[in-house]
Amino acid sequence: MSEQSGGDVQRFSEMVKRHEQQLYKEARRLTGGEELAKDLVQETFSRAWERFADFEQGTNEGAWLSVILTRLFLDDLKHKKVVSKAVPQLTAFETSRRDINMTVTLIPDAALLNALNSLPEHEREVMELRLQGLSYKEIADKLQIPIGTVSVRLKRAVDSLRGLFTPLK
């Protein structure tokens, strides 16, 4: 963020006063809620202040602020959509992880050790680090591999172990 002069602060404050009510109306229409609208307008003014030095004086400041507000709203919608798509997968993963942790405590150490030793080395290494309590990021950093690779190797190891310890029906 660039240094801005006292004159900029004054001009920005005046612009806020001129457009605040209109932005609140627009934000309420978009969000459907008073508190969400207030947050959106606040974030709009924050973003506008960060970019105020680049604002071309004499252009339509109301339109400029409206574009910022709308983009922030749309970005938030996109973020919520991504999160909502990920929730079922994350929930399934957490359930699977709890099941594994509970199952691991029920398996005799010798049987677990034999099962771990039967895994390919790259899967075994990741699984052992995870069982030691390391996070995906810590494992990735330690092994100098991407987090996505950690995730894939763990899933394969879990699937293999599950196959070894799940009775056939």
How would you sum up this structure, described in words?
With 169 residues, this protein is mostly helical. It has 2 domains: 6-83, Rna Polymerase Sigma Factor, Chain: A; 107-165, Arc Repressor Mutant, subunit A, CATH 1.10.10.10. Helices cover 81% and strands 0% of the residues. It has 7 helices and no strands. The protein has helices at 6-31, 34-50, 61-106, 109-118, 121-131, 136-143, 147-165. The longest helix is centred in the middle third of the chain and has 46 residues, at 61-106. The chain is elongated. The model has no long low-confidence stretch (mean pLDDT 81).
Short characterization:
The protein is an all-alpha fold and 169 residues long. The protein has helices at 6-31, 34-50, 61-106, 109-118, 121-131, 136-143, 147-165.
Q: In the CATH hierarchy, what is the superfamily of the largest domain?
A: RNA polymerase sigma factor, region 2, helix turn helix motif
Strand runs, count? 0
CATH class of the largest domain: Mainly Alpha
The residue fraction in helices comes out at over 70%
**What's the structural domain tally?**
2
- Report the end-to-end length measured between terminal Cα atoms: 63 Å
Poorly predicted regions are none
DSSP helix count?
A: 7
* CATH overall fold name of the largest domain: Rna Polymerase Sigma Factor, Chain: A
What integer is the average pLDDT? 81
The helix/strand series, from N terminus to C terminus, equals: HHHHHHH
Largest sheet: none
Radius of gyration: 26 Å
